[in-house]
Design a protein that fits this description.
The complex is a heterodimer of chains A (about 900) and B (about 550).
Chain A lengths: L1 H24 L1 H30 L4 H9 L8 H8 L9 H11 L9 H10 L10 H17 L3 H20 L4 H19 L6 H11 L4 H15 L2 H8 L3 H5 L4 H12 L10 H25 L5 H24 L4 H23 L1 H11 L1 H22 L10 H24 L5 E7 L5 H9 L17 E4 L4 H6 L7 E3 L10 E6 L7 E5 L8 H12 L3 E7 L6 H13 L2 E9 L4 H14 L6 E6 L10 H16 L1 H60 L7 H11 L2 H5 E3 L11 H36 L1 H6 L10 H22 L5 H6 E3 L1 H14 L6 H10 L1 H36 L5 H17 L1
Parallel strand pairs in A: 1-5, 1-6, 2-4, 3-4, 6-7, 7-8
Antiparallel strand pairs in A: 2-5, 9-10
Helix pairs in contact in A: 1-2, 1-7, 1-27, 2-8, 2-16, 2-17, 3-9, 3-10, 3-16, 4-5, 4-8, 5-9, 6-7, 7-8, 7-18, 8-17, 8-18, 9-15, 10-15, 10-16, 11-15, 12-14, 15-16, 17-18, 18-19, 19-20, 19-37, 20-27, 27-30, 27-36, 27-37, 28-30, 30-32, 30-34, 32-34, 32-36, 34-35, 35-36
Chain B lengths: L9 H14 L6 H19 L5 E7 L5 H9 L17 E4 L6 H7 L6 E3 L14 E5 L13 H8 L2 E6 L7 H8 L9 E5 L7 H17 L7 E3 L8 H14 L2 H20 L14 H15 L1 H20 L2 H9 L3 H4 L3 H9 L9 H15 L5 H12 L5 H10 L10 H29 L17 H75 L1
Parallel strand pairs in B: 1-4, 1-5, 2-3, 5-6, 6-7
Antiparallel strand pairs in B: 2-4
Helix pairs in contact in B: 1-2, 1-19, 2-9, 10-15, 10-19, 11-18, 11-19, 15-16, 16-19, 17-19, 18-19
Classes of the chains: A mainly alpha (about 900), B alpha/beta (about 550).
Chain lengths: ~900, ~550
């Protein structure tokens, strides 16, 4: 119980800033992640309020007060409320029942002392809700913790009574209300109750009136109206503000509106009682509402997620819900409390249900007292951590870009830390603290551990590095936790150090000489030639609750040592420093210098121990040297709170470090993705360029050079062209195409092929050149890709041949000769398609023999039509060829590992969720 | 100052390295090239400076006792020692035999106030150390050293490095990973002094020395020279001195150091540019490859096609001159499809082609060049392969144009009409005339034997008529025969002309490609060859 409370107390102020920032930074994220949930909750709330109405039928004040007052005040409310409902139908004027609340009203009331503690609790709560998304959890923490002393017993009742309240509290928080809002609302419940106590039955009605009008009011209007009302209501409002534990209001004068009120209030004749006039009550009610309005409006600045509309809507909705009841209740003041209770009871089941369903926060508030909340919170945290672990584990840094090795290392570290330390630690926060003794080789870590354990648990010696396998020393009672626990769960437990150099385990030794609750872990060095040791040491440090950093007089300026210290500071790990092997005669000089260095690096406040150079006997130091350290350990063992705090600090530090470490991983992943995209773009653009070059060549006539031109001359000049055009004569079988036609066709094919192959060559070289230019990795990936694939030529000739076939087919089927022509002339389709190709590739608009021939035979129309078709078909075929070529590059890229961009997003989200869960 | 006598080997290797550095830009990793250049420069500078002096540096981690050792060896409290870490921030130097040492110290950038001399009469006992420049370096592993590379620099420059280790730090990664492993192969110029031996018992020391030896061997120091010392008790100082003295007396440390450095660099070069089969790559374009290139370029121009076209066009056109005229006349009476399509001008145009057109297809040219470069650079590393390709392509852009222009000069004249064609045409017409005459005779003789004027009485002679018919037939036959025969002659001449044309074109293609492709490629090949030869010489 106590620890739980501590948790709450410690965390809320500490984390307030921590959790606040990310949430606000990630506003978009916030909306993204929590938006739908919020919407749902709001709906739920509406439903609930709807439900309330009939149930609350006749009830006046309470329901209304609940409805009107609750929203802004998530936690605060319970404390005063509880007595009302749970405490059993507090009749008006029934002091004991209404104590906490009523006392707020009546300074003289006996119960007065009670609320005082309540209020601070309440006021503490505002610290919590700063986290938008799951504020109530934290608010619940704080309040309940503090409320506990007073309300241990009513806790059970509370569950029912509180439910709606908490539910609405949830709503309030959803609307992004800030502590300030709670202040006013804090006023209200007590006020309402007082109104129950005192003849304040009218109070609801004004509220109803106001809220009725408020229905149509914009927040500003409400505010102005409230301002107007302020004047007459002054007499009343003071009562609230002053008589009530108005300390609340003053506790947090963050809101200017609130300030105004509270400032004005004391000046007024506060002697006035609440039973004055309806008008007064009205004002008071108005004040409430206006208070809400006022509070909320400024709040919106901060919680800009939710528009002011949402807030006002809610506030007003609730107010309006109450209206009818208010009317009735004003007539039957005496009944009010009963009814209140009735309603509360009527409401509670549903409310509880709904709250359970959707609002962890409300539960949390109940739960704290029954110790369930930490479990729940822990569960949420676990879930977030699990998600984080999964998304980190999913990372693949396939491309060996600069930094990839580091990223992989960081990923492994992160995973190991999550599994070795964070998850087990969150799961069982009460486990003994693990104190990791780390430092340079030869600094005397093992000697120190042996001395503290008063037993040679770890090997010492002159050989460097000495310790290769970590040795864990703990009290026998704690042994089970360390042997069976999940902490460093992946490491095999050993009974004694392995004789060979093989690492990978952890030796667990139990000794009574160590106090319970703390365990020492002797680690390998951080700076010897055996680099595996560094890894092991860092892994151990990642799992540590506290670090004892051991260095020596000869080493305290070593760079690796300072790197480790900086890391500890970065991680926010709890740290103690042992400066060992200090020659007695130079202790002062060394220590002074060391402390100065520590101070310079911002580590001046850390616990320090000095061990003098002395004869090491049997691997142990003289006992006198370690007394101080032993004392420190004992203290840590005894003072659970201190230990828990240390543990928590380190855990927090680690969790905080995720904020930068995980996004750093994601960044690198993004860099990889970007790199891959760039390389892909290189390939694409190179082959697009190649395709463009071919397009150009096929249109500007440059294709018709060399052999093709010569063959054309041959074909035309030798008279074959003329011969291919024959007068139509019946009974003449189609002639075999002469050799020259075949040669011409082959020449065109080779010409086209060579254009394609040349373009592909160029593209391949270009891709490789670009890749090489980008990074060394690009050069490696491009290995063997600087020329087109071996079967490009084969595929090309096949593609071109089939294209020629296709064109022939087109000419035959679509190129139906003009009727006037076909009557007179028959032509060899093979030859005609050749002429067609030449005309097509010639590109000079309508000039030249082939053009005119084709025009004359088929008509300009079909030349254009078939030409366009044939060209696009050719392009498609070449495109396919090039796609195949480009595939090789894509494969080379993919075989290097496919970083998936969505993984980065998931990482960010997991980090964010973790922040939310905290 | 005498010039240092370099052992045969260092000088040529340095020359080879110079060559490598010269040829390397664009082919070698810039960092490696830089290092090679730096080594060259350092070697040049060091060899120019005093060979009488040996620079010995005491290096090590902070707190290992470099300064104490320095003081112990020099016998004076020259370098401040202390318990604050790090103690020494600037390098101190102590010179035995100051004469001529200043330029060397300047080169080492030792500040004046940190230079000390032990050349006085005191040093009779230390005469074997004459020529020693002892440096006390700052540490290389403290937090200060992260921003100060002085130790790094001087470890590189010193002729002999004494690593000062101590029982606590002897296995630090900062020493081993950064230096010892890096300096593998420097056995001759590296000494390990295991200082602070007084902290250990004899057994411990023995164990530690063994451990250290093992460690060093594992890291590639084949024959580690480990000297246990204690600056406090003075133990081992003498043996360290004698080790140093030996090195100083031999005056070889500087060269050994350079050789070791050279060796190291050479390893990196070989790793970056494996010799492998590089030297088996052709250093020039051989005849077969030239032929291959010429063939490919001829195909790109379409030389065979041009020849064939010329042949066919000649044959076609010759029929108008030397062919049997009758089929031609008959053809004229046939309706011409072109005429019907109103395309007679097309035919005219085709007929009007006067020269065979010769042009190079640029894509095929590019492919030919590419193939050549591919073949040549087969065994080369990617960098050089790219370089050869680039060289081949360097003028390939203008190659098609150049080929086209050059070959246009020899493009066949298609409208050339040899004299004998004309003669044959006359002959054919004569034969036609004879045939016509015979026909007239026959007509006259058969139809109007009696009406002939007396002067033509002979025509009426019916006995001659069969002979006339026979004559007509033979005239026809003669015409056909001479048509066929002359066509054969035309074709024979055309193919002879074609051969001549193709030879000429090939010759020109070869000439053009030699200047525009082969030449730049050969330059690159020579560079490649020279580079690898130098690399081989370097490692030899």
């Amino acid at each position: 119980m106590n620890t739980a409370m501590d948790d709450g107390r410690q965390e809320s102020p500490g984390e307030q800033t921590l959790s606040f920032r990310p949430v606000r930074d990630d506003d978009t994220f916030d909306a993204f992640a929590a938006g739908p949930a919020k919407g749902a909750r709001r709906d739920d709330k509406r439903e609930q309020t709807g439900d309330e109405e009939p149930a609350a039928g006749e009830t006046g004040a309470t329901t209304e007060s609940e409805a009107a007052a609750d929203p802004p005040q998530p936690v605060n409310f319970f404390a005063p409320r509880k007595p009302v409902t749970g405490g059993g139908r507090p009749k008006p004027g029934d002091p004991p029942a209404s104590t906490p609340a009523a006392s707020g009203w009546d300074p003289a009331a006996p119960g007065k002392p009670d609320p005082a503690p309540d209020k601070p609790a309440d006021s503490a709560s505002p610290g919590g809700p700063s986290l938008f998304v799951r504020p109530a959890t934290r608010g619940g923490f704080a309040t309940t913790d503090e409320a506990v002393p007073d309300q241990d017993e009513p806790a059970a009742h509370e569950e029912t009574a509180i439910a709606p309240a908490s539910d609405q509290a949830g709503n309030a928080q959803q609307t992004g209300e800030e502590p300030t809002a709670e202040q006013t609302s804090g006023d209200e419940p007590s006020e309402n109750e007082t109104s129950g106590d005192e003849p304040s039955d009218e109070q609801p009605s004004p509220a109803a009136e106001l809220s009725g009008s408020g229905d149509e009011l914009e927040p500003e209007d409400a505010q102005s109206q409230a301002d107007e009302l302020d004047q007459p209501g002054d007499e009343e409002s003071p009562d609230e503000a002053q008589d009530e534990p108005s300390g609340e209001a003053e506790d947090e004068p963050s809101d200017s509106a609130e300030d105004e009120i509270s400032a004005e209030v004391p000046d007024e004749p506060s002697a006035e009682t609440a039973d004055e006039t309806p008008a007064e009550n009205e004002t008071s009610a108005a004040d409430e509402t206006s208070g809400e309005g006022l509070d909320e409006t400024p709040d919106t600045d901060e919680a800009s997620d939710e528009g002011p509309d949402a807030i006002s809507d809610e506030g007003l909705d609730e107010a309006s819900d109450v209206t009818p009841e208010a009317a009735t209740s004003s007539e039957a003041p005496d009944e009010v409390p009963d009814e209140v209770e009735a309603t509360a009871e009527a409401l509670s089941p549903e409310a509880v249900k709904t709250s359970e369903e959707h609002e962890e926060t409300s539960k949390g508030t109940d739960g704290t007292r029954t110790e369930e909340l930490p479990a729940e919170a822990a569960e949420a945290l676990m879930a977030a951590l699990d998600a984080l672990r999964e998304s980190v584990a999913d990372l693949r840094f396939g491309l060996d870009l600069p930094g990839a090795e580091e990223a992989r290392q960081a990923q492994a570290d992160l995973l190991a830390q999550l599994e070795d330390y964070v998850l087990p630690r969150v799961r069982t926060s009460t486990a003994p603290a693990l104190i990791v003794v780390a430092g340079s080789t030869g600094a005397g870590k093992s000697t120190l551990v042996n001395s503290l354990a008063e037993r040679n648990v770890s090997r010492t010696g002159v050989r460097r590095p000495t310790t290769g396998t970590p040795v864990l020393v703990c009290h026998p009672e704690d042994r089970a936790w360390f042997t069976e626990g999940e902490l460093l769960g992946n490491l095999q437990r050993l009974d004694k150090p392995p004789t060979d150099a093989a690492t990978g385990g952890i030796v667990v030794v139990a000794t009574e000489k160590l106090p319970q609750g703390v365990a020492l872990l002797d680690t390998p060095d951080i700076d010897s030639v055996v680099e595996e040791h560094h890894e092991v040491a860092h892994r151990m440090l990642d799992a540590a609750d506290l670090w004892i950093f051991v260095t020596t007089a000869a080493r305290y300026a070593d760079a690796p040592a300072w790197n480790l210290l900086k890391l500890a500071k970065e991680r926010g790990a709890r740290l103690a420093i042992v400066l060992s092997r200090v020659p007695s005669r130079s202790t002062d000089v060394v220590l002074k210098h060391f402390v100065r260095m520590l101070t310079e690096y911002g580590l001046g406040e850390i616990d320090r121990f000095v061990i003098h150079e002395s004869k090491v006997e049997d691997g142990r130091l003289p006992d006198s040297e370690v007394t101080e350290l032993r004392l420190w350990l004992a203290e840590l063992s005894v003072d659970e709170e201190r230990r828990a705090q240390a543990v928590r600090e380190t855990l927090n530090g680690v969790l905080n470090s995720f904020r930068t470490r995980v996004p750093a991983l994601a960044k690198h992943l993004e860099a990889q993705v970007a790199f891959r995209t760039e390389l892909r773009r290189d390939v694409e653009s190179a082959f697009l360029g190649a395709l463009g070059a071919i397009d150009k060549a096929s249109k500007n006539g440059s294709l018709l050079h060399g052999e093709v031109l010569a063959r054309w001359q041959d074909f035309a000049g030798s008279g074959d062209l003329m011969r291919s055009l024959r007068l139509r004569r019946r009974g003449r079988a189609a002639r075999q195409a002469p050799e020259r036609i075949l040669a011409f066709k082959a020449a065109i094919r080779t010409g086209l092929e060579s254009v394609i192959v040349a373009a592909a060559n160029r593209a391949a070289e270009e891709v490789v050149a670009r890749w090489r230019h980008r990074a060394e990795l690009g050069a490696k990936l491009a290995e063997g890709l600087d020329r087109p694939s071996d079967n490009l030529v084969r595929h090309t000739s096949r593609a071109i041949a089939s294209w020629q076939e296709h064109l022939g087919e087109l000419v035959r089927t679509e190129g139906v000769a003009k009727r006037s022509v076909s009557k007179l002339v028959s032509f060899d389709p093979e030859a005609l398609s050749l002429i067609f190709m030449v005309a097509m590739f010639n590109g000079s608009n309508g000039e030249g023999v082939p053009h005119r021939l084709v025009n004359a035979l088929l008509g300009a129309e079909s030349l254009r039509g078939i030409g366009a078709k044939a060209l696009s078909d050719l392009r498609a075929r070449i495109g396919m060829l090039f796609d195949e070529e480009a595939m090789r590059y894509a494969q080379a890229l993919d075989s290097a590992g496919i970083p998936d961009e969505s993984v980065a997003t998931r990482l960010y989200q997991a980090t964010y969720n973790l922040e939310v869960a905290r | 100052m005498t010039t240092m006598t370099t052992r045969p080997g260092l000088a040529p290797r340095l020359t080879a390295l110079t060559k490598v550095v010269e040829l390397g830009p664009g082919r070698l990793d810039p960092k490696l090239l830089n290092d090679a250049g730096a080594l060259l420069q350092r070697a040049g500078e060091r060899l120019k400076l005093s060979s009488e002096h040996t620079v010995v540096a005491l290096a090590g981690g902070t707190g290992s006792g470099k300064s104490s050792l320095f003081n112990a060896i020099s016998g004076l409290e020259l370098s401040p020692t202390g318990v604050r870490r790090p103690t020494t921030a600037r390098t101190h130097a102590c010179v035995w035999g100051l004469e001529g040492a200043a330029p060397l110290l300047d080169w080492l950038q030792i500040q004046w106030r940190h230079r000390f001399s032990r050349a006085s009469a005191l040093d009779k006992g230390d005469s074997q150390l004459h020529g020693l420049i002892l440096l006390d370096l700052p540490d290389h592993d403290s937090i200060r050293a992260l921003t100060d590379t002085e130790a790094d620099r001087l470890i590189g420059l010193a002729d002999l490095v004494v690593w000062v280790l101590d029982p606590q730090k002897y296995a630090d990664a900062s020493t081993h990973r950064r230096y010892v492993t890096e300096l593998a192969g420097h056995d001759a110029v590296t000494v390990f002094a295991l200082n602070q031996a007084d902290r250990l018992t004899t057994e411990e020391l023995a164990e530690l020395v063994i451990d250290l030896n093992d460690l060093l061997r594992r890291e590639g120091v084949e024959h580690p020279s480990v000297v246990p010392t204690s600056a406090v008790t003075g133990r081992g100082i003498e043996s360290l001195k004698s080790v140093i003295a030996t090195a100083v007396a031999r005056r070889r440390a500087a060269i050994q150091k350079l050789e070791a450095d050279l060796h190291r660099l050479e390893q990196r070069l070989i790793e970056a540019m494996p010799l492998g089969e590089a030297l088996s790559a052709p250093s020039s374009v051989d005849e077969a490859r030239r032929m291959g290139l010429t063939d490919a370029l001829c195909d790109a121009v379409g030389v065979p096609a041009v020849g064939e076209a010329m042949e066919n066009v000649y044959a076609e056109r010759s029929t108008r001159w030397v062919g049997w005229p009758y089929p031609r006349w008959i053809d004229k009476f046939r309706s011409d499809p072109l005429k019907m399509l109103r395309l007679d001008d097309v035919a005219d145009e085709i007929r009007g082609i006067t020269t065979g057109s010769v042009s190079a297809q640029s894509a095929e040219v590019a492919n030919a060049v590419h193939a050549l470069a591919d073949g040549l650079s087969m065994n080369m590393s990617p960098v050089w392969r790219t370089a050869v390709h680039q060289a081949a392509r360097s003028r390939a852009g203008q190659l098609p144009q150049a080929l086209t222009e050059d070959l246009a000069e020899v493009a066949p004249q298609l409208d050339r009409v040899p004299g004998w064609w004309r003669l044959l045409k006359v002959w054919q017409y004569l034969l036609v005339a004879a045939f016509l005459a015979g026909a007239l005779w026959l007509v006259a003789g058969l139809l109007m034997p009696g009406q002939l004027p007396p002067s033509l009485q002979l025509l009426g002679d019916s006995g001659a008529l069969p002979w006339v018919g026979l004559m007509m037939a033979s005239v026809l036959g003669l015409g056909a025969l001479s048509g066929i025969a002359s066509r054969n002659f035309v074709e024979l001449g055309a193919s002879r002309e074609r051969e001549r044309l193709e030879r000429e074109m090939r010759r020109r293609v070869a000439a053009v490609s030699a200047t525009m492709v082969v030449e730049p490629v050969e330059r690159e090949l020579a560079r490649h060859h020279a580079f690898y030869t130098a690399l081989r010489d370097l490692s030899a």
